[in-house]
């Protein structure tokens, strides 16, 4: 989902390997590194495992395709692209970010286009995911972290998200959902009230621009944010600044107005400068990449965009 953004700390976790806090890749992250802006944004996921193979050493979860489909429908399993342990990204503290496969949007600036596609994933069961979460519980507790459901569009697999969220609530594990909100109408109030945080991507404030950059409509995102606001669910708004695409002053003003209408629950706004780190993947998945000539915004332009949000009384980073 915030596949549109990514980050430079790469704590990639192959599907058959666990990253731990003692891994050099995790342990070597100092505060300074964590606080750099790009450190929050630059992960480009590896291409997903296109098979339905189990984790190394585990049995295949389902013998028959019909069992698998039934488990997906019931939320006992999900199509997962990959997962990784990250710090200061995708929510507070150290988090297990679970990247679900499939997305209804087609953002021109998506840096993980393989997560758009449902078949770049592996079936994971509720037991497999909660086992991994249990393993990291002490890290979550020490860092104030938890789990983040991201993608792709995690809300394509709502029954699974609902089951894992309910389990996390029992276990005292913080939950965050990273989403465009496009499928928000399908989420029940009970789930939205259970979530500790929603990272809501507002990709444009102007309807026409939104369609140009995502191929979809803006209205579902606004309606979803309105529901979160009414329910009191905390939001971090995220906006990707793409020169020539989303950086028109009036567009930024509109995104700020949208964020401000949820000011009772918006804890922060993250203005994420566009980068080119995902460009190779577009050719790997044989999709047209339209931003090959686009430069990242200048630091001054990014700061100026943040000021627009601050002018609405919002915390912007
Ligand atoms: S296409 Fe989907 S996964 Fe990629 S940035 Fe857009 S919402 Fe996120």
UniProtKB/TrEMBL annotation:
Keywords: 4Fe-4S, Iron, Iron-sulfur, Lyase, Metal-binding, Oxidoreductase, Pyruvate, S-adenosyl-L-methionine. It comes from the Bacteria. The keyword Nucleotidyltransferase does not apply. GO terms for molecular function: 4 iron, 4 sulfur cluster binding; [formate-C-acetyltransferase]-activating enzyme activity; lyase activity; metal ion binding. Residues 89-317 form the Radical SAM core domain. The keyword rRNA-binding does not apply. Residues 1-39 are annotated as: Disordered. Pfam families: Radical_SAM. Signal peptide: none annotated. Residues 9-20, 30-39 have a biased composition (Basic and acidic residues). Its cofactor is [4Fe-4S] cluster. PANTHER family: PYRUVATE FORMATE-LYASE 1-ACTIVATING ENZYME, PYRUVATE FORMATE-LYASE-ACTIVATING ENZYME. Activation of pyruvate formate-lyase under anaerobic conditions by generation of an organic free radical, using S-adenosylmethionine and reduced flavodoxin as cosubstrates to produce 5'-deoxy-adenosine. NCBIfam families: PFLA (TIGR02493). Belongs to the organic radical-activating enzymes family. This is Pyruvate formate-lyase-activating enzyme. It comes from Kineosphaera limosa NBRC 100340. The lineage of its organism: Bacteria, Bacillati, Actinomycetota, Actinomycetes, Micrococcales.
């Amino acid at each position: 989902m915030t596949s549109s953004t990514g980050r430079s700390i790469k704590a990639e976790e192959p599907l058959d390997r666990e990253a731990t806090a003692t891994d050099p890749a995790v342990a070597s992250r100092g505060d300074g590194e964590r606080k750099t802006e790009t450190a929050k944004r630059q992960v480009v996921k590896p291409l997903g495992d296109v098979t339905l193979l189990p984790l190394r050493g585990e049995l295949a979860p389902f013998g028959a395709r019909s069992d698998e489909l039934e488990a997906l429908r019931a939320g006992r399993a999900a199509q997962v692209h990959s997962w990784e342990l990250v710090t200061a990204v995708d929510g507070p503290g150290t988090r297990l970010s679970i990247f679900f496969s499939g997305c209804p949007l087609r953002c021109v600036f998506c840096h993980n286009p393989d997560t758009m596609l449902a078949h770049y994933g592996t079936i994971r069961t509720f037991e497999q995911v909660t086992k991994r979460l249990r393993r990291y519980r002490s890290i979550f507790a020490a860092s104030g972290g938890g789990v983040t459901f991201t993608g792709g569009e995690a809300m394509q697999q709502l029954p699974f998200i609902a089951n894992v969220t309910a389990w996390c609530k029992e276990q005292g594990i913080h939950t965050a959902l990273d989403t465009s909100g496009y499928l928000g109408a399908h989420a029940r109030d009970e789930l939205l009230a259970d979530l500790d945080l929603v990272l809501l991507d507002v990709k444009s404030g102007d309807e026409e621009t939104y369609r140009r950059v995502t191929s979809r409509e803006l209205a579902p995102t606004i309606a979803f944010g309105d529901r979160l606001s009414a329910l009191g669910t905390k939001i971090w708004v995220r906006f990707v600044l793409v020169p020539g695409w989303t950086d028109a002053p009036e567009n930024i003003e509109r995104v700020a107005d949208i964020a401000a209408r949820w000011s009772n629950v918006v804890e922060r706004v993250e203005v994420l400068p566009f980068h080119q780190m995902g460009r190779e993947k577009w050719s790997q998945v044989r999709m047209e990449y339209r931003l090959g000539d686009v430069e990242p915004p200048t630091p001054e332009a990014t700061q100026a965009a943040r000021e627009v949000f601050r002018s609405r009384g919002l915390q912007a980073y």
